[in-house]
Amino acid sequence: KRAHNINVASLNLKGIIRQQMVLDNIRKVITTLNSGVGAHDRRLILVVGTFVLSCLCVYNILTPKSLGLIRQSDYALAKTQSLGFFDNISRKDWDLMRKRVRERQNHNDKILGQRSKVLWMEVPNAWYQNNWEPDFSCKHERRIGGLGDGPKWVCDPHRIVRASQERQEKGGNGCLVYSFGSYGDIRFEQSLLEFFGPDHPCEIHVFDSDFSYADVKLPPHIIHHTWGLENSMEASNKRNFMSFQETVESLGHRNRVIDILKVDCEKCEWDTYKDWFDAPVTFMQLLVEVHGSPPVANDFFETLQRHNFVTFHKEANTHFAAGRCQEYAFLKLSPDFFS
Questions:
Q1: How far apart are CA 189 and CA 226, in angstroms?
Q2: Which of 23, 142, 236, 269 has the most C-beta neighbours closer than 10 Å?
Q3: What is the pLDDT of residues 160-201, one digit of tens each?
């Protein structure tokens, strides 16, 4: 905050110096004109000169360059604490977003009492009504893929293009997406590519163990892998399953950033979520459909919060599951955001 105030003060000082230089120049002009005119004309010159001076002072203070520097300074905190994702949110708005997260209520303790987090767990639609609501908002979030079951809500997808480009310029990887469990329905993945456009290709990996893509025409940049996701602690001998860590290693993606991790694998989320944080990658957005509310459900959400994720969307699957399944969307932020 101190650095922000110093930057703004410095910019204001520069504006004042420019204003003084303009003032000195106009004074010289007025002095020259005064030497050869009468009193009436001098008053007219003074009025006109004052008006011109005021206009020039305002212009010099509010030049695009100065405004741009002030805005960059005002946006710096949000960009830093969002790991480069948000580049145009003011300090004032960002502080309000931080305040909302600090004041979040994960459970309906006021109505159901201190053990509300474990009440109704055997009735998922009732449990989700009283627990784990969103604590963050993305101004330009979009439902990618259309309507119905399958499409997902993405936080400000236009920012992924810029963030991945900036990452590449610094020597990192470009846009990268993992999608577990599409079952041949690639509306989300295809719509994501269309949204980014041909000038900003994104590498999208789709993982399905029990669906043949022989009859599915995959567009460029979408790669299908014939294995599903399983728990690293209970790894089977099935060739069509891998843990998340094995998946990352087999694709050579160690130390990369995954812009979107989509998981819709019919309850495998409960067995594999701890592996997501043990793999040598960082994922920025998590889009996951959770199925039911088993005993580990609270730990699932608590683990995400411990790893600095906020919840920006929650949507009940009312078509096929009557609210027993929920679509959640999470965004990773810097630890400083929460301090």
A1: 17
A2: 269
A3: 999 999 999 999 999 999 999 988 889 999 999 999 999 998
182, 211, 245 from 276: Cα distances, Å: 18, 23, 8
C-alpha to C-alpha distances, 111 to 114, 130, 272, 285, 300, nearest whole angstrom: 9, 9, 32, 32, 23
> Phi then psi for 241, rounded to 5 degrees?
-140, 145
Decide: 59 and 15 in contact? Cβ < 8 Å.
no
For 155, the token pair is 């936080």
**Residues near 173 by beta carbon (within 8 Å), at least 6 away in sequence:** 164, 167, 253, 256, 257
- Torsion angles phi and psi, residue 316, rounded to 5: -75, 140
Cβ atoms within 10 Å, residue 252: 7
More confident residue, 291 or 238: 291
What does the pLDDT read at residue 115? 87
First-residue to last-residue Cα distance in the chain = 14
CA distances 261 to 92, 186, 240, 257, 280, Å, are 30, 15, 20, 10, 14
Residues contacting 3, CB < 8 A, separation 6+: none
**pLDDT value at residue 60:** 60
User: pLDDT value at position 310?
Assistant: 98
57-88 burial, b at 16+ Cβ within 10 Å, e below that, comes to: beebbeeeebeebbeebbbbbbbebbbbbbee
Q: How many CB atoms lie within 10 A of CB 270?
A: 18
117-158 pLDDT, tens digit each: 999 899 999 999 999 999 999 999 999 999 998 999 999 999
